[in-house]
Amino acid sequence: MLNAEVVVVGAGMFGAAAAKYLARGGADVLVIGPGGQSPSHGAPASLAPFGAHHDEARIVRRLGWDRVWGTLDTRSADRMRALEAESGIGFLTECGALALMGKGVRDRTAEMLRLAGAAGVTVEELSGTDLGRDFPDLALPPVAGGVDGLLERQSAGYLNPRLLVRAQLRLAAAAGARLVNGQVATVDKNPSPAGRWLAQGTAADGTAVHARAEQVVVATGALANQSGALPTGVRLDLHAYTEPNLLFEVPAGQLERFRDLPTVVVVDPEDRGNDNLSVYLLPPVRYPDGKWYVRTGPGMQPLVRELRTAEEMLAWCAGGTIGAEQARFLAAMTRTLIPALEPVSVRPSCCVVDKTPTRHPYIGPLGEDDGLFVAVGGNGHGARGSDEIGRLAATLVLGGQWDFPLPREVFAPVPAPAPRVSGADRPPYLTPPFGLC
Ligand SMILES: Cc1cc2nc3c(=O)[nH]c(=O)nc-3n(C[C@H](O)[C@H](O)[C@H](O)COP(=O)(O)OP(=O)(O)OC[C@H]3O[C@@H](n4cnc5c(N)ncnc54)[C@H](O)[C@@H]3O)c2cc1C
After folding, report:
1. How is domain 2-54+162-238+357-430 classified at the CATH fold level?
2. How many CB atoms lie within 10 A of CB 311?
3. Whole-angstrom distance, CA of residue 171 vs CA of residue 100
4. Which element (helix H / strand E) includes 170?
């Protein structure tokens, strides 16, 4: 039997950051989560090993979609270089981040710029001519009415999510946190008086894990409702969606040409179903196979499917194949944005993102003062704000003073309502211009 003051379930982007801040705050912390990569294709026994951070690049910006995200992202980005220095692990590439905002949402763009300005974030506004001059290899998407270019250069580009998790866990361990490489199958009230909660599961070496704690932080990402980490009968209003990506292998002869591209998001505000052009693109990034890939992913067009059950999630994650419509869309958008790219090969990648109807992460207690907390709901772009999300979770668990400029209720976890009827209208939090990376 393991004993701790706080058990963190899930050693991903949020859990690792929370564990670091909890340990630094003086708590005796035990983190239980699978290490390493997502299992390769085949038939893994459970969902738990899959994580949204098993990749080489996540876009980093401080220009937020709203004040909540802008503040989370700015606070985290401002600490990234220090985090690299403290941990000895580099994970940030400052290639710049470009948002191509449809002119149809100019009010929103103006508000985003106002918030960024107030936070001291420098954003260059680029016209079509400016963009053509600065990024001749980038073509503008045919969004109705045109796009405005918003470019951030400083503390913007992409981070390596696996390395950021490794850095956070290293710092958590240095502050005294213990890490169990394993997965949790159940979390329930402990029947004995020693510790309010009992988390049980299996370590990577096959041995059983039993951990007692006064407090539990569930940080399992999109798998919260499906992987056994929430007590029986407890479910969040948290929805998992397929996140199909295509990776385009960049030929050696074209690498220098495209290497200096920024990360790109296209925000098409018109709700035109699968004809909506919202998309994100990562410039050439080196993957573990030694090759360089440009990677693209969608907005929340209907071709992105909700995954409702553990079986659906497992089939998607382990299947390794994206849908034909998803592939067509991503290939077409990539050709549109970088017409000169002549990929040597193209391969799919299947990941999962979690969406909350509030559009913000859930950070906080689930019940009335019983020590059960969650930190989930990255909404497809939680990597860049993960350090601050983990810090806020730790603040609440430790009973510290709330020092975020917006009330903690913004992050209040919402329990699941009755299941939605299959085929019902797409909920408003998924319709453009929202729902993008
Ligand atoms: C394809 C893709 C592209 C993205 N692009 C961006 C981007 O450009 N910029 C950005 O900021 N964000 C991006 N995101 C989102 C970002 O990666 C996520 O928001 C972030 O990883 C969320 O962190 P998390 O800790 O909630 O979840 P995860 O990183 O998924 O971590 C959860 C962890 O919990 C573990 N776990 C699950 N169940 C159990 C269990 N029962 N017991 C123990 N452990 C368990 C999992 O194995 C995993 O390690 C992207 C996501 C995807 C999938």
Report:
1. FAD/NAD(P)-binding domain (3.50.50)
2. 11
3. 36
4. helix 161-174
Closest CA to 154 of 77, 89, 82, 51: 77
Hey, is 310 helix, strand or coil? Answer: helix
Question: What residues does ligand 1 touch, defined as CB less than 6 Å away?
Answer: 9-15, 32-34, 48-53, 58-59, 161, 183-184, 219-221, 223, 227-229, 243, 245, 297, 351, 353, 376, 378, 380-384, 386, 437
Q: Which CATH class is domain 95-158+239-353?
A: alpha beta
Pairing outcome for strands 239-249 and 306-307: antiparallel
Q: Kindly list the strands in the beta sheet with 58-60, ordered across the sheet, starting from the edge strand earlier in the chain.
A: 58-60, 157-159, 92-93
User: Where in the chain do CATH 3.50.50.60 domains reside?
Assistant: 2-54+162-238+357-430
Residue 108, token pair as written in the block: 């929103």
Residue whose pair of structure tokens reads 């103006």 in the numeric block: 110
Give how far the C-alpha of residue 13 lies from the chain's centroid of Cα atoms, to the nearest Å.
Answer: 8
Tokens describing residue 414: 């919402």
3-state secondary structure of 389: helix
Query: What spacing in Å lies between the alpha carbon of 390 and ligand 1's midpoint?
Result: 13
- 185 alpha carbon – ligand 1 mean position (Å): 18
What SS3 state is found at 423? coil
pLDDT tens track for 94-125:
999 999 999 999 999 999 999 999 999 999 99
Maximum Cα interatomic distance, the chain, rounded to a whole number of Å = 69
CB crowding 126-163: b at 16 or more within 10 Å, else e: beeeebeebbeebebbebeeebbbbbbeebbbbbbbbb
Looking at the chain, which residues constitute the CATH 3.30.9.10 domain(s)?
A: 95-158+239-353
DSSP alpha helix (H) spans, 2-55: 13-24
**Which residue would you say has higher pLDDT here, 32 or 420?**
32
* Residue 55 tokens, joined: 């990749």
Q: What is the pLDDT of residues 145-179, one digit of tens each?
A: 999 999 999 999 999 999 999 999 999 999 999 99
